[in-house]
Design brief:
It is a single chain. This protein is an alpha/beta fold. It has two domains: 237 residues, Aspartate Aminotransferase, domain 2; 104 residues, Aspartate Aminotransferase, domain 1 (Alpha-Beta Complex), CATH 3.90.1150. The radius of gyration is 21 Å and the shape is globular. The model has no long low-confidence stretch (mean pLDDT 97).
Length: 356
């Protein structure tokens, strides 16, 4: 039976990328050694790191003055690194879900934080509007896509202070104007690679302005000076990131990714909206293109477990909603084909016909 992988992360990767990674694990570039056992200081792996960074620059059209880092720790490490490097007087944060709350918690350990807007009042089912970004903040932090609640900021915001964005779950799913951001960061394990490596795109001129002594492993400047190799990098995940970025380029780049992703999301949301059994959880103008969250309508609530079992029997993987919210979640990242979305819709409609 064909499996359709809707897992929220670690998530589906392009099959050609998996095959190339598997080959490199056995024999990297015909050198007779695995990519997992060569020195990160040698020319063979340096070429991988250089190509991965060059692909980031090309695909995202990153302007001069920015550095690309590939580091351990994922997004969660950056929750602390960002205030360590940027917070001197006050930071501003937009609270849109669980990961935004975690970022706020870490920043408060370093200095004052002003939450300028929050959607907690409606269980994070929408993106806040009409908030003001304080001009005296050191930076303004947003989480562009909220995997647990299925909401997304779909545009590049204008900010009077450096804009910092956790893009873990929608990075490389659409074109982004990097010049509007001070830092873009996230874990790779949604659209650009496996778990184990995080990406940071940082504008160099916003660094070096805080008075505190920053621990070496948390100092972006030290990682920049050392080309992401201050300590041994996560070599295998970096290789897979490189291959994933090559796949994105070969598929048509970020414009094509956005076109494909929007078509998949529209198809699934249309099926949910036309259903008498299922209902979306996010407000329509805030819906995520990456994570489609839905539940059973009230009179069918007792059928949730039955539907989950039915869907799993048809090859649907990873559609159970996050444990904190329940229901269902279909993560439709770059590598998920439209065929899988159509298969999920067929399963939903078949179940509805049987039970409604």
């Amino acid at each position: 039976m064909k499996k359709h992988n809707f897992s929220a992360g670690p998530s589906i990767l392009p099959r050609p990328v998996i095959e190339k990674t598997a080959a490199a694990v056995l024999d990297f570039n015909g050198i007779g050694l695995s990519v997992m056992e060569i020195s990160h200081r040698g020319k063979d792996f340096q070429a991988v790191m250089d190509e991965a960074v060059a692909l980031f620059r090309e695909i995202l059209d990153i302007p001069d003055g920015y550095e690309v880092l590939l580091l351990h720790g994922g997004a969660s490490m950056n929750f602390l690194m960002i205030p360590y490097n940027l917070l001197q007087n006050k930071a501003a944060y937009l609270e849109t879900g669980t990961w935004a709350k975690k970022a706020i918690k870490e920043a408060k350990k370093i200095g004052p934080v002003e939450v300028v807007g929050s959607s907690a009042d409606k269980n994070f089912s929408y993106i806040p509007r009409n908030y003001e970004i304080p001009a005296d903040a050191d930076y303004f932090h947003i989480t562009t896509n909220n995997t647990i609640f299925g909401t997304q900021i779909r545009e590049d915001l204008n900010s009077p202070v450096p804009l910092v964005a956790d893009m873990s779950s929608d990075f490389c799913s659409r074109p982004v104007d990097v010049s509007k951001y001070g830092i873009i960061y996230g874990g790779a394990q949604k659209n650009v690679g496996p778990a184990g490596v995080g990406f940071v795109i940082v504008r160099k001129d916003i660094l070096g302005k805080v008075e505190r002594d920053i621990p070496s492993m948390l100092d972006y400047r030290i990682h920049i000076e050392n080309g992401s190799m201050f300590n041994t990098p996560p070599c295998l995940p970096v290789y897979t990131v490189m291959e994933t970025l090559k796949w994105i380029r070969e598929t048509g780049g970020l414009v094509k990714m956005e076109e494909l992703n929007r078509a998949k999301a529209a198809m699934l949301y249309d099926a949910i909206d036309s259903s008498s059994m299922f209902a979306g959880t996010a407000e329509k103008d805030s819906r995520s293109v990456m994570n489609v969250c839905f539940v059973m309508q009230d009179k069918y609530k007792d059928l949730e477990a039955d539907f989950l079992q039915f869907a799993q029997s048809k090859g649907m993987v990873g559609i159970k909603g996050h444990r904190s919210v329940g229901g269902f979640r279909a993560s439709i990242y770059n590598a998920l084909p439209a065929e899988s979305v159509r298969a999920l819709i067929d399963v939903m409609q078949e179940f509805e016909e049987q039970k409604a």
